[in-house]
Amino acid sequence: MAANRTSKFSGDQSFDYHIRIRGYLDEKWSEWFGNVEIELSDNCETLITCQYIDQAELYRLLKKIRDLGLFLISVQLIFSEHNPSMESEDCS
Question: What is the CATH number of the domain that holds 61?
Answer without folding.
Answer: 3.30.70.980
